[in-house]
Amino acid sequence: MAVAPGRGLRQPKAGVANIRGERHYLWRAVDHEGEVLESYVTKKRDKAAALKFLKKAMKRYGSPHIVVTDKCPSYRAAMKVIGNERRQETARHLNNRAENSHLPFRRRERAMSRFRRMRSLQKFVSIHSSVYNHFNFERHINSRIRFKQKRDAALREWRDLLVAWHLLPRENGDRFALV
Predict the structure, then answer these.
(1) Is 9 helix (H, G, I), strand (E, B) or coil?
(2) Which residues in the chain come in under a pLDDT of 70?
(3) What is the largest CA-CA distance in the chain?
(4) Which residues contact 37 (CB under 8 A, 6 or more apart)?
(5) Using one digit for the tens of pLDDT, what is the confidence trace for 61-102?
């Protein structure tokens, strides 16, 4: 897959979310920096679901140089169909970045008291990863001054986006009030 510079490693990961007692699987593609690239919710964790998720991620981000996965057989079957079977790696600790990408989502999920519908989970996951990626600055790498500068810049950009969104005309001609 032709990927942006520095984005040669993708780590798809399927997490579990319970909605009304039923298990749903949350698929995620994570780049080498830990940013969530793509999220997808399914009821099954089989070849068809893995294939649909991988095709969706590859259509948007291109074909990766290396795909690090856990040892779920559905990944291998889907990669075989796509033709990326040789690019898959399943070594023991390579998947840690994808495992850690679940933590911010789990914290937020607990605060929201879980989800009631699959559609609301899908909407939340897609928005949450974008917002989290926008405000995550790896505090352990940056100095406190640099961290504050980056955070302030991100907050200014976020406020500009909200103002622009607020000024967009709506279908019924009304504008939404931001509180």
Answers:
(1) strand
(2) 1-14, 96-102, 111-113, 139, 170-179
(3) 55
(4) 10, 28, 29, 30, 31, 57, 60, 61
(5) 888 888 888 888 888 899 899 888 888 888 777 776 666 666
From 1.25.40.10, 3.40.190.10, 3.30.420.10, 3.40.50.800, which CATH number describes the 9-136 domain? 3.30.420.10
pTM above 0.70, yes or no: no
Task: Give me 44's structure tokens.
Answer: 């099954």
Burial pattern 138-148, b for ≥16 Cβ within 10 A else e, equals: eeeeeeeeeee
Q: Report CA-CA distances (Å) from 135 to 7, 8, 66, 69, 146.
A: 19, 23, 27, 26, 13
- Residues 12 and 53: beta-carbon distance below 8 Å: yes
Q: Which residues contact 154 (CB under 8 A, 6 or more apart)?
A: 134, 135, 137
Question: Where in the chain are all domains bearing CATH 3.30.420.10?
Answer: 9-136
